[in-house]
Amino acid sequence: MTQPSAVAVLLSDLFPLVWSGLITGCLYALGAMGLVMIFKCSKVVNFSHGNVAGLAAFLVYGLSSGVLLQLSWGMAVGVTLVAIVAVAVLTYALIAPLVFASDLTATIATLGIGLIAQGVTLLVFGADIVALDLPVPPFRATVLGLRITGYDLTVLAVALVTIGALFFVIDHTKLGIAFRAMSDNPFAAEVCGLSLKAVHIFAWTVAAVLGVVGALLIVPTTFLSVTTVAVFMLQAFAAAVVGGFTSLPGALIGGVLIGVLMNLFTYYVSPEYSSTFLLCIILVALNIFPNGVLAAAGGGSRV
Amino acid sequence: MTAPTLTASGLHLSFGGIRVLHDLDLEFRPGEITGLIGPNGAGKTSLFNCLTGAYRPEKGAILLGDRPLRGLPPAARAAHGIVRSFQTVALCPDLTVVENVMMGLARNHHAGWLDAFLPLPRGRRERAAMRTAATAALAEFGLVDAADRFPAQLPPGNQRLVEIARAIVGRPTVLLLDEPAAGLNDAETRDLTRVLQRLATPDLVMVVVEHDMDLVMGICDRIYVLNFGEFVACGTPAEVRTDPDVVRIYLGSDDD
Amino acid sequence: MSESIGLLHADKRSPADAMRLFGGPALRAALAVALLGLPLVVAPSWLFTLGICFANSLGVLSVSMLVRYGGEVSIGHSVFAAAGAYTVAILEVRFGVPLWISLPLAVAVGALLGMAFAWPSRRLSGIYLAVTTMALALALPEIINAADAWTGGYEGLYVAQALLPAAPMGLQRYYVALLLLFAGVYALARLRESRQGMALLLARSHPAAADAFGTRRTWARLSAMAISAGIAGAAGASMAYASATVSPSGFTLWTAIFLLVGSVVSVYGLTLGRALLGGAFLTLVPQMLASSGAWIPIFYGCALLAVILVGHYAPKLRSLVERRGRGRSAP
């Protein structure tokens, strides 16, 4: 404590950065958990995740702003959720036969879906940047020198509720138990009296919903364009890799870690090289803990 | 010239607390055909995997002659002449039959990357030499006609023979055969028996895991009986056949 | 998911010599001769497009090679192509080095980069390579712009040095790209016959068996990636020379994804005809849809899905039809 002023300055910078990193990290975690859910049960990396979620954000914008329809915000989100779940089920129906033949081919097929989603977004909404505001309570408070906004609390609340609900479903419902058992043995689901496909559809649907929630909540921090959500999803990929790609708690921790690290990097080093930094995180993570942070910490992966 | 003996002592292997192999001592001698029998799940294939280096036993020593093998990766053990066949046929579907057999010689050849991409004499000589040796190995099984076909075009029995041809083509010092007669018809099993007996020379340690008792009793000089990861008997076929423990395992349970 | 990265069903169902096909040797020779003679009959403006088509074909070949021999997908081959392209461009612009010296260097740079990025995921399943290479492809434009003193930043570099002093530049661009494509196809045909190539194929379908015969898994993964990235480096050099320019916009994540689309459309073929099919798809579709850019990803996505689904269902349909036919001919 020789230079209290320097420390104070550092802390006054650091705390808000970590806090806002934590907030966006929760959203990366939502995206990452969707990827992990799909990968855990069907061994497919869903490369369409980002583009479909991006399409969802645009749908909400289009339905609520009058570009397509002039619905209330809640209605727009509801209609979008239904549409995106339908897209997820349709996607799965299309590639389901591939999943059982070759996970690599199915993974490539998801790239095709992603291309189509990207093209449709471009076709309907164009390449322009649009503004999408969320009806977030206009709240603002300062706690211990930390500025907390209504957006922060909304994100935290939504993320906590969503993730809590997900863990509850996985721990306590038949579908969830079958899902957990399946990552050890693909035929475990049949023991529980459920078909593999039912569990797969469960995972794809939940992943789609998580993606929509994450995409909608990330938009207020930036603007909405064709690439916004795809970039967001790259962070989600990184979070999934850091978490080991097969662990939901790992994805959660990975998301928060990526959120905080990215925030610190953009503030202290440079905002221009964020993708390069993300690449470095992925490479380092693969080298140091190839099975995820939780496995490295000795905790193993429960779910 | 005599091959070294393959010995192991105090071999322990477990997966997640489940004991797979427990305190095994064994001695596989050159010039003999050693049988390894036991009910399903007794640990026969796991033992093979320990010997080839695919699994790492927690305790115990494995020696080839006086050379310790424990800790060496599979490729290094292959370099010492330990080869195996697999329980399920492990032939590459994109390679022809003779090319699959040629892979058994890969470790003896060293043409470089330039030879791989350019028509240089060294690479050509290597391929021709490998092909000649592989064709000779196929001839042992009467499969020369199938040389340029793909594995999937052969009946399952012949695929198994191709796999054994791949194992022996590199003149190994230790040959571990995992259920070589599985899926063979009677005529093919007779071919196999003849080949195995011909292979039993003083410069080869041969170990056969097999469920076909007629085959095992017919060709083996010594038989180890494995049950729940432990040896319950070891001796000549006659001794094993009358061993009360073995009789109990094979007659008292529903396995096999 | 350690060893389960699936075989591609295409080879699972047709173990027949799917790799050396697309017509017999006579047909292939005819195709090669036709391409060599094309400048005699085709308008010069088309030669430029065809040169880029050949360069893209080589890029498609590099992606297909990785799928065939490594059983892995990369969504970052644009990076290795960029490495090759910038090697050629920087050596020419800064040091005046001609193509015949910079080309081998471009291949080496691509291969080394490929190995470096396969290294972290050498023991992991294929999806990690896909994710790593995707992040790499996204980071690439940033890195190129950061090094703008060398790379020319957004504007890129202009490649114009003639290989033969007297010949017209348009013809040189065409023939360099064509001959590089021939070389790539030839080298891969040789590889298929070589010990190393066969070992890679065995390691892809049965890693444990390859291990037991002395082919280490790490060696196989790194080798497949190095060869594929080396070819991508050559493709990049070819793109640079054929199109006369190198800029970051030519090597984005989309470039990488499109290379994969081309590879799928060519059914991962390693022959001249298949590579050309994939390359032509990548070169001609954007030209035809130039007025309506949004349709390009849609068209690519649909083509990708269509080829994959046809590849999946065709063998089943064929066997169904055969069974029907047999049933009818039976008394």
UniProtKB/TrEMBL annotation, chain A:
Bilayer topology reads: Multi-pass membrane protein
**Top-level taxon in the UniProt lineage:** Bacteria
Instruction: List residues traversing the bilayer.
Output: 17-39, 51-73, 79-101, 108-131, 151-170, 191-217, 276-297
Which keywords appear in this protein's UniProt record, sorted alphabetically?
Amino-acid transport, Cell membrane, Membrane, Transmembrane, Transmembrane helix, Transport
* Compartments it resides in: Cell membrane
Q: What protein family is recorded? A: Belongs to the binding-protein-dependent transport system permease family. LivHM subfamily.
Q: Which PANTHER family match?
A: ABC TRANSPORTER PERMEASE PROTEIN, BRANCHED-CHAIN AMINO ACID TRANSPORT SYSTEM PERMEASE PROTEIN LIVH
Q: What is the name listed in the Swiss-Prot or TrEMBL entry for this protein?
A: Branched-chain amino acid ABC transporter permease
- Gene source species: Azospirillum oleiclasticum
UniProtKB/TrEMBL annotation, chain B:
Keywords of the record: ATP-binding, Nucleotide-binding, Transport
Q: What GO molecular function annotation could you give as one example from this UniProt entry?
A: ATP binding
A Pfam family of the record is BCA_ABC_TP_C
Limits of the ABC transporter domain: 6-253
- InterPro entries to which the protein is assigned, alphabetical: AAA+_ATPase (IPR003593), ABC_AA/LPS_Transport (IPR051120), ABC_transporter-like_ATP-bd (IPR003439), BCA_ABC_TP_C (IPR032823), P-loop_NTPase (IPR027417)
Secretion signal: which residues? none
CDD domains referenced in this protein's UniProt entry, alphabetically:
ABC_Mj1267_LivG_branched
Q: List, alphabetically, the PANTHER family matched.
A: ABC TRANSPORTER ATP-BINDING PROTEIN, CONSERVED COMPONENT OF ABC TRANSPORTER FOR NATURAL AMINO ACIDS-RELATED
Name of the protein described by the UniProt record: ABC transporter ATP-binding protein
